[in-house]
């Protein structure tokens, strides 16, 4: 899967969870939960959706590697086939 | 016959607007079926029926705003005969032989008006002061249609304005008042702020709050969750919030004075534990719908219900019972927040448990200072029902439950 496709998947899910946030306006290296104002349930839903659409396990112990928008992209790119 | 009424969804609700029917007259309904959707300050709420039977007739038109307790429809309970001649509560049913279905509003309009007994002909009744002569039904209809009665010409006795006069005006195409906006599925933030303000002002006016706080070691609970979630796909993972709900529900088995409603000057302990989960709404506001019978649910079910509630709150659609039933509220700040929150009790409840954001703190374990993940629990409770002594024991019991998560 291409980098662009992965980013598109991430954008799609974030838009569902935080429709009021413009991705162009966020700090891509800032705390993902802060930037999108999402709580632990939203984050779990985000992980559930991405895990399904991209086929990545995204275990809980890896959550620390998904701390920002950019970090999440790096993580997803590293774990998709 | 049973009435399906505009429900009260909390101390702060006085009226609601009927926006959607999900059952038609003649349709079979079961207890728990969603019969209608009403728009309130808390968004669009699905309202369930309490009876098994057949929806006999609507009593209120779509778009009508009515006070809490107003019958919206009649349900003929199982085993009851169709009551052809039996008048529906407060309204006259359309004649059985009507050539076509008559909408409730028309039925109302045709209702044989109990004209006020010809006023004892006192001169004052002729209203020399210019006071408008209008029948109560006409006044009501005019109000519903947003017509100023003073602009109407009466054709009744002594020029009194009658129902027909109001109807005629509308037929002539006088602009009606703006109908209330239909359910958008979203929230009216300013209305919600008003609702919160009203409930919280009442709470602070009526409930003598007391507050307790307790910091506890969260290590066992976090380790339990990590182990429980390891190797599971995300949709089967649970959040620590589910543990909090179970820990509180279990503690309430012994400390019943924190679970229930205070109404009409006395405390009514809850038959079951319905935990109101405070859920934040994007853009502002919050609601605390119930996880019913939390004492009987296992962790996975609590998690499933929490997930479902959050999803429906985000979509702006939840059920009437979920808002009116909670017997206690749990408010958890989650990962992003501060150490402690002191809640304001949501009447008629008598307690709210606050759970802060976990923080790593120096902690003494076996005479050694070690870093531990800790969380601060708080209790705001109603002094009319309980005292700080029992409140402290209740918080300690929650702590104890969180130290033994495998038993929850």
Tell me the CATH superfamily of the largest domain in chain B: Chloramphenicol acetyltransferase-like domain
Number of strands of chain B: 20
**Anisotropy-based shape of chain B:** elongated
Rg over C-alpha atoms of chain B, rounded to the nearest angstrom: 27 Å
- Gap between N and C termini of chain B, in Å? 43 Å
Oligomer: heterodimer
* Continuous helix count of chain A: 4
Short characterization:
The complex is a heterodimer of chains A (81) and B (408). Chain A has helices at 3-17, 32-36, 40-54, 69-79. Chain A is mostly helical and 81 residues long.
Question: What features would you describe in this structure?
Answer:
The complex is a heterodimer of chains A (81) and B (408). Chain A is mostly helical and 81 residues long. Chain A has a single domain (3-79), classed as ACP-like (Non-ribosomal Peptide Synthetase Peptidyl Carrier Protein, Chain A, Orthogonal Bundle), CATH 1.10.1200. Chain A contains four helices and no strands. Chain A is globular. The model of chain A has no long low-confidence stretch (mean pLDDT 93). Chain B is α+β, with helices and mostly antiparallel strands and 408 residues long. Chain B has three domains: 2-103, RNA polymerase II/Efflux pump adaptor protein, barrel-sandwich hybrid domain (OB fold (Dihydrolipoamide Acetyltransferase, E2P), Beta Barrel), CATH 2.40.50.100; 123-171, Dihydrolipoamide Transferase; 199-407, Chloramphenicol Acetyltransferase (2-Layer Sandwich). Chain B is built from nine helices and 20 strands. In chain B, the strands form five sheets. In chain B, strands 9, 12, 15, 17, 18, 19 and 20 form a seven-stranded mixed sheet that branches. In chain B, strand 4 and strand 5 (43-48) form a beta hairpin. In chain B, helix 2 runs parallel beside helix 3, helix 6 (240-252) packs across helix 7 (299-314) and helix 6 crosses helix 9. The longest helix of chain B is centred in the middle third of the chain and has 18 residues, at 189-206. Chain B is elongated, with a radius of gyration of 27 Å. Chain B starts with a strand and ends in a 5-residue tail after the last helix. The model of chain B is unreliable at 85-130 and 171-185 (pLDDT under 50). The A-B interface holds A 18, 20, 33-34, 37, 39-41, 44-45, 47-48, 51, 57-61 and B 226, 229-231, 233-235, 237, 239-241, 280, 282-283, 306-307, 310-311, 334-336.
